[in-house]
Write a structure and sequence with these properties.
Mean pLDDT: 94
CATH class: Alpha Beta
Order of helices and strands: EHEHEHEHEHEHEHEHH
Number of helices: 9
Radius of gyration: 16 Å
Strand order of the largest sheet: 1-8-7-6-5-4-3-2
Number of strands: 8
Number of domains: 1
Helix content: 25-40%
Structural class: alpha/beta
Largest sheet: 8 strands, parallel
CATH topology: TIM Barrel
CATH architecture: Alpha-Beta Barrel
Low-confidence stretches: none
CATH superfamily: Aldolase class I
Amino acid sequence: MPLAYKIAPSILSADFARLGEEVRNVENAGADLIHFDVMDGHFVPNLSFGIPVLEAVRKITALPLDVHLMIDDPQRYLEQFVKAGANSISVHAEVCQDIPLIAHHMHELGIRACVAINPETEPSRVLDAAHHLDMILVMSVHPGFGGQGFIPESIGKLEAIRRELKGKGLELDLEIDGGIKVDNIRQVAQGGANVFVSGSGIFGHNDYAEIIRRMRGQLKALEQEDKP
């Protein structure tokens, strides 16, 4: 059975002055996950929100919270983010010396274990440990700032990762984050992604339900094409 397509609005692009309303609106619009970007000003040159905001979001939505830790030494904070409500956590391969160990820790905490790779990172860094993971996150922009343009070479990386996963007999979720919009979601799905993080691609529009409907329309058309 093919992996389900999932749309994950990134609240880094939401209106923080009315964050609760924004989260409820994308949930009502048909989002599958809420993507939660954490930046520490060290691993990436920017700061965002952290545990208190995650706790607040957890209280107002039943959707899974997909936490992306763009931070140094993520192992130190896993338990705190899980207690705050995370359902899955992505840590970066670039700062994790032992991916199987941190994946085991995440599983012990009862969450999905995910690893992210930056645009310049070779897929082998995460593929060697793929059998320990539930999801791989491919960054299609340089992490740290919202609103960047999609890096086209990311599609080739998705294709290579999906091909290697199939060769290993693994059906992992493959998430893509950065510059995902209506006009390219079908192309990245063709590359092998099935979880689509979109910030300004959703929150930059007035009608969240309409933009998510259009994204799903692109994915549905691809499914129809693939049917024999």
